[in-house]
Amino acid sequence: MEYNIMDLLEGKTSHRFSIMNNWGSGGSITLNHGLDAASPRLHATAAASADGATDTPSNASGTNKSRKRPGDALYAEETYRLRSDDHLDVEHTKVEHKEARCCNTKYGRAMKHLLPYRPQQKNKTLLPSNSAGLFNYISVTWVTGLMWKAYKKGLHPSDLWTLQHEDGSEVNSERLERLWVDEIYNAEKAKRKPEFWRAVWRSMRTRVIVSMIISLTQNVLQFLGPSIMLKTVLDYINEPEVDHQYASLIVLAIGVINLCRGSAFNAMFVVGTHTATRVTGAVQAMMYKKVLKLKTGGERLSAQIVNFSNNDMERLFEACISCVFITAMPVIFTMSVAYCVYILGPWSLLGQGIYILFYPIMGAIAKAQSSIRVETVKVTDKRVTLMSEILNSMRLIKMYSWEDSFAKKISGIRKEELKKHRIGALLQAVSSTVTPSISILATIITFLGYTLSGYPLKSSEAFTIFSVFNAMQFTVGVLPFTVRSIAEAKVSLNRIQKLLELPEHQKSMGGLLNNNLALQIKNASFAWEVHNIDIKGRGGPARTPSKASRDKKKTDDAQKNSAVNGTAPLTNGHVITEQANGTNNPSKEENTDLVKNIETLFNISFSVERGKLIGVCGSIGAGKSSLLSAVCGDMKIQSGSVQVNGRLALVTQQAWIYNDTFRENILVGQSYNPERYKMTLQVCSLESDIELLADGEMTEIGERGINLSGGQKQRVNLGRAVYSDRDIYLLDDPLSAVDTKVAKHIFNTCIKGTLRDKTVILVTHATHFLEKCDEIILLQKGKIVERGTHAELIARKGEYFDMVGFDSTHDADKAEEEKKADALISEDSDTKEDVKGPMMNGKLITEESRETGSVSSKVYLTFIKASGGWCITNIILFAIIIFTLTRMFNAVWLQHWLDQGDGMAAERRENVTAYNLTLSDEDIKGEITQNPMLWMYQLVYGLSFVLLLITGIIKGIGVTFRVLAGASKLHHAMFISILRAPMSFFDTTPTGRILNRFSRDLDELDVRVPFFLEFLLQGILFIIGQIILVCFIYVWFILPLLLVAVLFVAVDIFLNAGLREMKRLDNTLKSPVTQHIGSSISGLSVIRTFDKERLFINRMYSKLDDHSAALLVFRLSNRWFTFRMDFMATCVTLAVTIICVFTKGLVSTALAGLALSTVTGVCVSIPFLMRMKSEFQSRITSVERIIEYAYELPSEAPREIPSSQPPADWPSKGNIELKDVKLRYRPDLPLVLHGINASIKDGEKIGIIGRTGAGKSSLISTLLRMCELDSGSVTIDGVDISTIGLHTLRCCISVIPQDPVLFQGSIRYNLDPFEEHSDDAVWQALERSHLKGFVQHQEHGLLSKVEAAGENFSVGERQLICLTRALLRNSKILLLDEATASVDVETDHLIQATIREAFAKNTVLTIAHRLNTVANYDRVMVLDKGKVHEFDTPETLMGTEGSVFREMMQAMGVSTVEQMQALN
Q: Which residues make Cβ contacts (< 8 Å) with residue 744, sequence separation at least 6?
């Protein structure tokens, strides 16, 4: 929409602005200046289209289509961006002025980093890095205060800075989206497949090039030290003359070179870290936005996205930082070849040839590692998906006591995963051995060839070459790591590309020609799309956007995806046809590997007038929920068209509740209107619920509404729709989860009252509601079989007539009874109910625990024990020590060989003394080729390499395999600990937090920890050994070494604590991201239908930026630490150099060369080694988090108690005694059951009714010991259930839960996971549950696939499968918790008949809202406020005046005992 700018800017009528609602951002205001006030010239593009640039939308859009590239602009613009917390009304609009920039100011802000000093920024909450001067930026000094605070007090998320705008996920994701569209456009022109990695590369290309330039500078400086400067020092030592001035210049040059090298190295990493933060934030935000555009979500997709966000982002981050090392090897190699040929001549090419041969070897290893990684990721995805499914269904798993079955399944997947990891570990062991050995082999080959050819080898030349090859070792060493990082990142981006290529849910703007119609569907058939994001999926040509959609995307951010922009226009009606079915390509060509279509609805045709109430009914699996999904645009339209004229509101059959306050679950980001909010609570019967919440409407609701009853969740779900004030309401059976009185109240006051002027499509099985609808649609097998008013359909005596025949609640005098019922409902409107698991102070979800200070020694000891104990650890350490000594021996032997010369050195020294001669050190030793023992020196020198390889392979395999063994043991312990945790733990712990342990933290332990540990152990031991060696050569070196060591230990022990604290914050702040992804995917249809994409994307931006800030500071604090370590290493190098040049003559040139080359190598390696050390210490926090869940979680009672095992046939009768049963969900919460007393005889059928939240499900929980009693007892057949094992108890009770849950696998697995029954028994159970025909029609019968959470089955079908489970178990006690709430009346009657027949001699306890379900039970228990209010036969209760049971019966039109008995 457009306004005159005077509405905002002081009446300047010459400007106009438009508010562009881009659902990926907070919106913006753009001021278009056709004329420049200073110099009246039109922008070139504007001038070309000046005639068309009017204020009309049509002309504006026509102008926009002239853009050819995403970067083209129509006008010189000033952009004002609306932040996410701004309002769209004029009074509250805040504007942030973005100056117009030209090409020469594009990098102006970044170039300011070249200023040596910059004043502190005014806003202290923003990350200081982007406003730091050159020295501050390179040395990361701005983080010192935070590091000190981390050491003194520990850190809290509130201590972190906020990301600067340019590092945020919002701006970078929008840019990456434009580049991805541009890549698709370019690929289409070039007739190739688009590749997402190209877009990612373009997004970071400039910054990577800058990093590479810095890297090249660092490479040159790195080469100068061990080559030219070392040769200069050794030549000076070799000559007998003393020149202190020359020596001082040498020392000064070495100091400056090392300081500059360290600074360049740190600057390269700082730039790379910012780049990686931007890229990973952008990719995650882009993935999330894509997920919100998908037609369907599901558990499998959720687990895959979580895996992308956790594991793949880590690899992408590493690749962004390390990719600059690709340029290091060619530069160092070229300089090394030139200098070595200059020193030794062509023979030096032998060593360089070894390095050339090393490339294909390491390339092959890297390729193999990449392939293994691809395979491993697939298995990890599978495990994480199953783990997500288990966590979301933990209550059911415990009810059925199926822990062993899932433990076996997870164990099998984990074994497969470990096989892949072991292959990767073996390759890693080879790589970690070959990498440090290559410089030694190159030196050996060069010197052996040189000496065997008869050339004399001098000490200065030998140790210069030796030092150059050692310097190359660092570059070569990081090459496999770099190649592997890039390869793994490319694999990850390819997987993410498959997600980005999935078809989208897309609404095209448009309305109906007939404004009286709210909805019209013409001859439409619909299919569900099943996504398959699999790395091996090849597929056909990638789907690319049509030209129109490309042009639309390229115009401006605000015009992208206008149909799903999160801000509903006045009428957001849409027209979907076969040609605009939500895919990116109007053609029918499709990647069938990525998407599978399952046809569900066929030839649907109907229209709905505005303000009408349409009832939809049909048997289970008929397609009722699918019909609503089709209207929402969530299904793919195969043929025909759908036209929607108005804004939609959706109430799903399974309520979607997310972790936020009670009020926010209703408002969902809308502004708070007290009157409308109060009205919503009243019509949805929620007022009394709020009164019982600890903090009222501001009480925190747990993930998936864990602390609300089923009815409460559904009423909150309905309240959200009512408050939204939309045009068309799609209600998917919302009344089945509440009792009859509440259902009547909601129908009359909400659906027929508040929504009377709205268009409502109501799915229900209740015929007494259907008859009050304006029109009824009956579905069967995905087709509309009947349509008309209730009276018309009854008169036809078709299928609707038959269905109504099963519902005997109709009566001739029903009108009078309804009046009475309404009066009863009105009187009881203030009835209070208990909340399931109420909270103290309104807080439910616990904060994630974070250790402070250094990682406890207990963690290391536990890890060592899990990895094989001290014996195995000592053997591995011994192998590493042998490997280290062998590496050192090689250099020491070379020095010894050179010092022996031709064997005549002793005689020459006597002559020098006797005749007062002046000879250089080389003249005294002579030529080594003249030594008679030359062959022995050469043989030992060559064999040292063979020993190095053998010990290296043993060491590598030992470390990696034992760490993997430890990881496997810890994973098993953690998984068992999670299975054994009480339900209170899952009530207060978000699934994302637990899943983080099984995905990100376990990935760290499987992949990162072995790599870092091996590198660290061999690196530290090697450096310690080399320093000791230098101390033996120069005793005076001990003094500066001690000084530096004290500083080193101080920094390492005291301030290195900041790294651990940062990593803990990184881990902690990742969990909300994971949780938000899972919650959003589960509520995908609701978010999209209510146009809340922008709200949830902004929340994702916030959570991503919080985590990115923690990750960025953690990585940069790593650089803070490493930079200071590098400075200390420079001090050590200077100390040795000073000792060498000012004490020359005390040791031989060979010993001086050994000392200098050793120290130079140490100083080059220390920064990288310290980075590995701090990385390892920070990543060991993942082990700490795993150990916390493995050994420190609370546990349920034992599964088996042999000493109190009941008889084998227990329970043989099914008697149940409840004595003064009191229950609270957690010790700090109030009671939910207040002294329940009841005696239930064997074989009795007990109906349990009561208002939603009265304690019905809590009573079921006591029988299964889901929560331990606060007091009282429950006995079954004389056995106190608190004295026996949980497995013993739960195996003997069958339960059909309120929320039917299926698991990924086959139908047979879901019915009989332990394979205890024959196929005949399974088919018999299916026949009795009326599912046999349905299963027989499946393609693979019992082995037909069940998707995660049973997404390919309707809710009713899932409930019938749960019934079949119970029939198979045939336990003496059967518990049904709203088991038939989602099935049609006919099926409900059949099920009840099956229960009466199959469980005739069993004790049955049924929670029901459909009173006809329990009307013929032996007794009915009425619960209220956690107490037994009534407990008698239905007939007695029906005849008792004032009985709650009687009032509820009257609410559904039943007033006599005879009418009640006729219900079944």
A: 821, 822, 825, 1451, 1452
Q: Residue 86 and residue 29: Cα distance in Å, rounded? A: 12
**Whether the Cβ atoms of residue 366 and residue 483 lie closer than 8 Å to each other:** yes
Consecutive H or E run containing 98: strand 97-98
- Cα separations in angstroms, 1372 against 479, 1259, 1281, 1401, 1405: 66, 18, 15, 8, 11
CA dihedral 1280, 1282, 1288, 1289 (to 10 degrees): 80
Distance of CA 286 to the CA centre of its chain: 13
Amino acid of residue 1135: A
Residue type, 1176: F
Position 758: which residue type?
Answer: K
In sequence order, the 6+-apart residues with CB closer than 8 A to the CB of 594 are: 498, 501, 502, 531, 532, 533, 537, 539
State how far Cα 1122 lies from the chain centre. 30
Rg (CA), the chain: 37
| Per-residue pLDDT at 472 exceeds 90 | no
| Residue 1159: per-residue pLDDT | 80
SS3 for 39? coil
Rounded CA separation 456/1336 (Å): 88
Q: What is the mean pLDDT of residues 764-778?
A: 87
The pLDDT tens digits of the residues spanning 1350-1375 come to 777 877 788 788 888 888 888 888 88
What percent of the chain has a predicted confidence (pLDDT) above 90? 9
Q: Quick one: how far is CA 1305 from the chain centroid? A: 23
* Residue 1342 Cα to chain centre, angstroms: 34
Which of 19, 36, 37 lies closest to 28, judged by CA?
Answer: 19
Yes or no: say if 78 and 29 are a contact pair by the CB < 8 Å rule.
no
3-state secondary structure of 1399: coil
> Nearest CA to 354 among 262, 443, 477, 453?
443
Pair of tokens at residue 10: 């002081």
Cα–Cα dist 476/1168, whole Å: 13
- Amino acid identity, position 1193: L
1211 preceded by a cis bond (ω within 30 of 0)? yes
Decide the pairing of beta strands 1245-1250 and 1419-1424: parallel
Distance separating alpha carbons of residues 493 and 943, to the nearest angstrom: 45
Mean pLDDT over the full length of the chain:
77
pLDDT at res. 933: 77
> Please, which residues bridge with residue 1068 across strands?
none
Cβ-contact 167, 131 below 8 angstroms: no
- 162 near 125, Cβ under 8 Å? yes
Q: What is the dihedral of CA 1380, 1382, 1388, 1392, to 10 degrees?
A: -10
Q: Among 991, 1152, 956, which residue's Cα sits nearest to residue 239?
A: 1152
Find the distance separating the first CA and the last CA of the chain, reported in whole Å: 60
Residue 267 is encoded by which pair of tokens? 């600057």
| Three-class secondary structure of residue 760 per DSSP | strand
Strand partners for 1216: 1240, 1276
pLDDT score at 51: 37
Residue with tokens 């795993």: 1186
Strand partners, 1306: 1345
Cα–Cα distance, 792 to 810 (Å, whole number): 17
* 348-392 vs 299-307: helix crossing angle, rounded to 10: 150
Q: Where do the DSSP E strands lie in 1197-1324?
A: 1216-1223, 1233-1240, 1245-1250, 1271-1276, 1279-1280, 1293-1296, 1305-1306
Beta bridge partners of 1406: 1247, 1376
At 1448 the three-state DSSP class reads helix
Report if pTM > 0.70: no
Q: Which residues are registered as beta bridge partners of 608?
A: 519
- State the Cα–Cα distance between residues 433 and 882, nearest whole angstrom: 13
CA dist list (Å): 841 to 707, 845, 1229: 14, 12, 10
Q: Are 773 and 731 in contact (CB under 8 A)?
A: no
Task: Assign 598 to helix, strand or coil.
Answer: strand
Q: Residue 615's pLDDT is what?
A: 93
